[in-house]
């Protein structure tokens, strides 16, 4: 089952829980555990949170333990600090044991985490896209999300995976220095393996990956790419990006930012657009009405508009 279908399950579950249709949400999530066994950590967490909302703490603990028994796990910080619905469990010894087990696994996995590169598409394509995943995602999921823009196999896509482990098979670009190191390493592999000097190159990213894609384009010396497409960029703090824009060394930048007016980072994105304009950096701004922090429903068309602009 594809990541697109999983996202639909997630959206449906959130809607049911917001409407307090807890029993229906539990049935949906239990069914999804069979269809998406590699997402059991998220599904088990959502089921546990739903059980907590119903006051059924033992069933919530069962769901969390089942995830660990199946070989999946969480960054303990997620369960302790961000899963607010699990609050009723936090003083229970069984929950503390789950946290400790997760901490052991996370620390061990973090030591061996390293950058990776997945490549898909047409090796003979004229355009190569270097696509940076969302925070909390990975190359497998992101490559599935972008599959619909390459159904005619007209692009070569390189998907770098960060070495910054966030949780089970989830990665982030939190540390900019590590992100830069990882991207230099993976782009070098991509460039040498597929002769990118003979292609038109574009950096593309979603959410935190979009923010990093913009920043990597600003410095000509990092990757040597002039074009970017940023999808719902996650500008939690615009100061670093603003500084890089005002002090950029790449004089040939051309980009496109795609976002929605319901995106939680929309106001920060408007600030970045203003700074790009003040520095005379050509950047098309596509705003999807009513869209939140997600890909546009008509993503292939929106992507084509963005690509046409950056390729001029």
Secondary structure: elements and pairs:
Layout (H helix, E strand, L loop, with lengths): L2 H16 L3 H14 L4 H14 L3 H13 L6 H7 L10 H20 L3 E6 L5 E6 L6 H7 L9 E7 L2 E4 L2 E3 L3 H19 L5 E7 L1 H11 L8 E5 L7 H8 L7 E7 L5 H13 L4 E6 L10 H13 L1
Parallel strand pairs: 2-3, 2-6, 6-7, 7-8, 8-9
Antiparallel strand pairs: 1-3, 4-5
Helix pairs in contact: 1-2, 2-3, 3-4, 4-6
Salient structural properties:
single chain, 312 residues, alpha/beta, Rossmann fold, 7-stranded mixed sheet, two-stranded antiparallel ribbon, 12 helices, 9 strands, 50% helix
Question: How would you sum up this structure, described in words?
Answer:
InterPro entries: AB_hydrolase_fold, BCE_2095-like_N, TPR-like_helical_dom_sf. Residues 6-105 form the BCE-2095-like N-terminal domain. The protein has a 7-stranded mixed β-sheet with strand order 1-3-2-6-7-8-9, with helices on both faces. A two-stranded antiparallel ribbon has the order 4-5. The chain has 2 domains: 3-112, Alpha Horseshoe (Serine Threonine Protein Phosphatase 5, Tetratricopeptide repeat); 116-311, Rossmann fold (3-Layer(aba) Sandwich), CATH 3.40.50.1820. The two termini are 37 Å apart. The protein is 50% helix and 16% strand. It has helices at 3-18, 22-35, 40-53, 57-69, 76-82, 93-112, 139-145, 176-194, 208-218, 239-246, 266-278, 299-311, and strands spanning 116-121, 127-132, 155-161, 164-167, 170-172, 200-206, 227-231, 254-260, 283-288. The model has no long low-confidence stretch (mean pLDDT 96). Strand 7, helix 10 and strand 8 form a beta-alpha-beta unit. With 312 residues, the protein is an alpha/beta fold. Helix 3 runs antiparallel to helix 4 (57-69) and helix 4 (57-69) runs parallel beside helix 6. The chain has 12 helices and 9 strands. The chain is globular.
